[in-house]
Amino acid sequence: MPESDRMGELRGRVCVVGLGYIGLPTAALLACSGYSVHGVDIDEVTVEGINQGKIYIDEPDLDSYVRAAVSRGTLNASTTPEYADVFILCVPTPLHREFEANETPGPNLDFVLDATKSIAPFVQPGNIVILESTSPVGTTQMVAQTLAESGVEILEISIAYCPERVLPGKIMSELIQNDRIVGGINSRATDRITAFYETFIKGSVFGTDSKTAEMAKLVENSYRDVNIAFANELSMLCESEDIDVWKVIALANRHPRVQILNPGPGVGGHCIAVDPWFVVHRNPSFAQLIRTARIVNDKKYEWVVEQIQKRVRTFQTTHGRAPVIACLGLAYKPDVGDLLESPSVAIVEHLLRSGYDLRVVEPNLERHLGIPLTVLPLAICEADLIVVLVKHKQFKGLDLKSKQVLDFCGLTVRQETIH
Description:
CATH class of the largest domain: Alpha Beta
Helix content: 25-40%
Radius of gyration: 24 Å
């Protein structure tokens, strides 16, 4: 909840460009921490909703922060920037999707460039400009160059990169508690912007240069991607040998220096499925392991589809008809409704295109425009085959003994101590 005792005299004006799943929480936190915040978004519906104290992001506690800030008059939004002391860019950095099979997908920095150009007329000497969007190495310098080309005297302002490190479902608490990295384009920028973050977060703030900060963020997500890829590859290897991958992992993890992650249907989300490609695209000759991990995780959903198809063929041979299939979960991770880059969505869409009779359950969504959703009890009742794609809490403890089950995320694995 917002800390009302932190208001007092306003500390300064902040303009946050991009009111998405990082920008809006950041704006709301700053607005409840003594700053006057102007949020900017190109979506007029989003802007109108925020000005009414409403949110469009499903995130615990965010609604209370936004309502409190709007009611106090410390947060407002529009489609254009305004003069401020601090400018924070929180816009998307997606991948370019138009590439050949043998090419590496590269970052699309159009949103960063557009956001930078939009604030340029309002940036004055002494201002701070911060890039929070996950970006390839060199992007912060590109922001500085773009401002300079737009007539801003960059020697008179402070520019830095400060990546977010938050978990969906815990964004508000982690914005406050997590450590941060500030990478300035010079030491003065690093010092000034470090001091700014220390006014509203409780975690430690570590100063460095912009390229190091950019690389550190990409390394964090690439590290996780590589470890997930190892688990996913292991699941496919064990299946080919008719070995229980969950038992293998449990036994291997008894080693004091081994901690293998659990496999799943692939990797999705805002970061891990995207950011490693930034590293690969910039340095393809050196990023061999990172590239391979990305390919393994991107292709895992195809293997999952093949396993389902094999089970369907066996069922048809035995029963003389096609099975009704219940697919449990669409989100990219447990206990959220976020479908961005979700391999489960790709799996279900492939099965639908193939003509299978599906009952799809996603308890964290009321509806999906492209995939008809079913309530859990009905799906379980009507299904011959249960396909578990996401380990949502609503699925735990289900009695599936009378059903055929394909579990791709460990929902039905017995948590036993292995001696």
